[in-house]
Amino acid sequence: MLAGAPGGHSSGRGRLTEVPGDASFASVNAIRFDAARALPLSERIELAETLWESIAESGYEPPLSEAQAAELDRRLEEHRRNPQTAIPWTEIRAELERKYTPRG
């Protein structure tokens, strides 16, 4: 088994840590990790996105840092003081699509 994260798995910044007693499992996962690292960058990004989506779909929500919580509180308070300054999502989305949709 691999140590570090829930269920015994850990990448440890790209390194798999073997726990005595389950060498075959660790070996198979090390091979899979090596195969994933050998993929072209675009495919590694796609793999990471797919893995993250599966984590999110399982209901995991990463905790907010203190700084993130403070920023959300600040923004909510600002909105409560000046709700007329809010920009509708439709406008934000249109601006993002204009800015980031490839042309051509």
Structure description:
The protein is mostly helical and 104 residues long. It folds into 2 domains: 6-57, no CATH class; 66-100, no CATH class. Helix content is 58%, strand content 0%. The protein has helices spanning 23-37, 41-57, 66-81, 89-100. The protein is flat and about 60 Å long. It contains 4 helices and no strands.
Which features would summarize this protein structure in a list?
0% strand, mainly alpha, single chain, 104 residues, disordered N terminus, 2 domains
Q: What global shape is seen?
A: flat
Count of individual helical segments: 4
Strand content: under 5%
The main β sheet shows up as: none
* Helical content band: 55-70%
Question: What is this structure's SSE topology?
Answer:
Blueprint: H1 23-37, H2 41-57, H3 66-81, H4 89-100
Brief description of this entry?
This protein has helices at 23-37, 41-57, 66-81, 89-100.
